[in-house]
Design goal:
With 413 residues, this protein is of the alpha/beta class. The chain has 16 helices and 10 strands. Strand 6, helix 10 and strand 7 form a beta-alpha-beta unit. The chain binds NADP nicotinamide-adenine-dinucleotide phosphate. The site of NADP nicotinamide-adenine-dinucleotide phosphate has 25 residues, from helix 6, helix 8 and helix 9.
């Protein structure tokens, strides 16, 4: 029933974050990403496809009823990044099919599979990834049903278990690390990027009283939104190159798929200062080139380094993960039922057309002569009766088929 759903994924469970970034679809802007995804979908003959890249996973969810050859993951990721070897791909990529794919999707949405279990950002990221692929015409009815199931399941996990209690996230753990450095509240913070992640970082900075923040972003209005909340200053991304006021903490997080701060730019931003700087890079792929570590005194906070904290968090939530998994089993059964119902609806979509044709044939051919001799009131009554029969007959096969299938399906205990 779920055979057509497939997932190709690379996650923090098997792979270091430095390696995950190699599986990200490289792109310079949204339209370049759209073209790459369209080419992958067409090239591999998928019916539907969506792409999610977060700080701890890359995931392609797709629908195809065609069987996949064992060489498929290698071919697919070499199309994403020709520099990847087949060995490297097979060591890091998981291919999940059917029920396993559906189960994984539900676990991702409800953050059971996250690096920081219980964080809620993933649901927003998943929704945004889906909506983007929907708008680009990459998805259809199958992924719509899958996403609907994933969202409903995740919401229930968040409300019915204590998994999301005392919310934590990659961002909150990074800020926790920042606070450990005991930077004064007057420290100069240079923030690059003004997306959802930095918006969240900004909330933590405000809560902890940091008061000297400068924000750079491609879209100035988004930088201004954050700067205003922090009573800081905002600039366009292209002004970063000429910024010479120095910094104590450089905080970079954008959607760029390669380093946007290389050693040369980093040295310019230092403005001649040589004391230790804190650098927070939460982007995957990294946005700050690691070459800065060789020649500069840097205390680096990056997602890979937060793994230990994330594992402590998992120990705290372990019991809740079990409760969440039980709930997800029930949602998986619901998902299977929705897919089944939809399949029946698709298979039976011809029924209304056929029933209507029978009615028209009866009225206009088989009983034409008899009807012609009826008075107006009787003809009108007969017409209404036939309409009524048409509507009822249309619904009967769908109802019967759904009931028959429902009674033949065992419900998990
Ligand atoms: N959300 C999380 O929980 C989380 C946690 C840790 C790490 N991350 C990572 O953080 C990164 C950003 O995620 P997000 O959710 O904040 O994304 P987002 O809301 O889409 O924001 C993307 C930001 O990056 C900027 N940007 C995109 N491409 C750029 C480029 N080529 N050059 C310069 N700036 C560019 C955008 O500028 P415009 O405003 O001009 O478009 C925007 O400020 C990703 O690598 C993600 O994996 C996310």
């Amino acid at each position: 029933m779920l055979d057509g759903f497939k997932i190709l994924t690379v996650t923090h469970r098997r792979t270091s974050l430095q390696h995950i970034e190699k599986f990200v679809v490289p792109h310079t802007d949204e339209s370049a990403l759209q073209s790459c995804l369209e080419a992958l979908k067409t090239g591999f003959g998928f019916d539907e496809m969506m792409y999610l890249a977060t700080c701890n996973r890359v995931m392609f969810l797709f629908y195809t009823e065609k069987p996949l050859a064992s060489t498929f993951p290698g071919k697919f990721f070499q199309a994403v990044n020709p520099g990847l070897s087949e060995k490297f791909i097979s060591e890091n990529v998981s291919l999940l099919e059917g029920r396993a794919a559906a189960e994984h999707l539900l676990k991702v949405a409800s953050s059971v599979d996250s690096l920081v279990v219980g964080e809620r950002e993933i649901l927003r990221q998943l929704r945004e990834a889906y909506e983007r692929c929907l708008n680009w015409g990459l998805t259809g009815d199958h992924l719509r049903i899958a996403m609907q199931a994933a969202i409903v399941a995740a919401k229930e996990v968040y409300t019915e278990t204590r998994l999301g209690e005392k919310p934590v996230s990659v961002v909150s753990l990074a800020v926790r690390e920042l606070l450990k450095t005991r930077l004064p509240k007057t420290a100069r913070i240079l923030m690059v990027g003004a997306g959802q992640t930095n918006l969240l970082v900004a909330k933590f900075l405000a809560k902890n009283g940091f008061e000297k923040v400068v924000v750079f972003n491609r879209t100035l209005e988004r930088a201004q939104r954050i700067a205003t909340a922090l009573k800081g200053r905002a600039f366009g991304f292209n002004e970063l190159e000429s910024y010479r006021e120095g910094f104590d903490c450089l905080l970079v997080c954008t959607g760029a798929t390669k380093a946007i701060i290389d050693n040369e730019l980093y040295i310019k931003l230092l403005a001649g200062e040589s004391d230790q700087k804190t650098v927070i890079d939460l982007s995957v792929p990294n946005n700050v080139s690691r070459e800065i570590l060789a020649t500069n005194d840097v205390h680096l906070i990056e997602i890979e380094g937060l793994r230990a904290l994330a594992e402590e968090n998992l120990a705290f939530r372990e019991q809740e993960v079990n409760a969440a998994n039980k709930l997800l089993d029930l949602h998986l059964a619901d998902f299977e039922a929705s897919v089944r119902n939809r399949q029946i609806e698709r298979a039976l979509h011809q029924v209304p057309v056929e029933v209507k044709a029978v009615k028209e044939h009866a009225l206009n051919k088989v009983f034409k002569k008899e009807i012609e001799v009826l008075d107006d009131a009787t003809r009108e009554l007969l017409g209404r009766m036939m309409e009524y029969m048409e509507k009822k007959c249309t619904g009967i096969p769908i109802k019967v088929a759904k009931e028959a299938l429902a009674s033949s399906v065992s419900v998990p205990a």
